[in-house]
Amino acid sequence: MNSTDGEDINRAWENIKVDIKTSTKESLGLHELKQHKVWFDEECLGFLDQRKQAKMQWIQDTSQSNVNNLNNVRCEATVHFRNEKKVYQTAKVEELEINSKIKKTLGTCIGASMTLRRGTGLELI
């Protein structure tokens, strides 16, 4: 058995796998997945689909143009994912900083209130 025969067999099985997944998705529909990454939105799904399509093209035809296309699409998707995650993390850090400042302010107010109640007998309303 030649290496090209083995590659042809692997490619054929991969095509069968893709066909089964596609027909299953069309007949049964997609189930809703749990979203573990809050920042992963519809635009990210578009990049993910582009990457999958480029990979399928490369699997079906391993020409140099398909290899280059796959590498370019992977790079674009990775950059987009990284940027989306960075924007989310920056917003989350800002939110945590604001919450921390509010808690410190509330803590100071509560502490002052407790001191006034104990020390002078006055109560803050």
Based on CA atoms alone, the radius of gyration comes out at: 28 Å
Q: How helix-rich are the residues, as a percent range?
A: over 70%
Show unreliable segments: none
- Judging from the principal axes of the Cα atoms, what is the shape? elongated
Largest sheet: none
Order of helices and strands: HHH
- Counting helices, strands and paired strands, the structural category is mainly alpha
Q: β content, as a range? A: under 5%
- Summed up, the domain count is 2
| Amino-to-carboxy terminus distance | 88 Å
What does this structure look like?
The protein has 125 residues and is mainly α. The protein folds into two domains: 1-32; 40-120. It is built from three helices and no strands. Helix 2 (42-60) packs antiparallel against helix 3 (64-120).
Please give a quick description of this structure:
The chain is an all-alpha fold. The chain contains three helices and no strands. It folds into two domains: 1-32; 40-120.
Essential attributes:
125 residues, mainly alpha, 2 domains, 3 helices, 82% helix
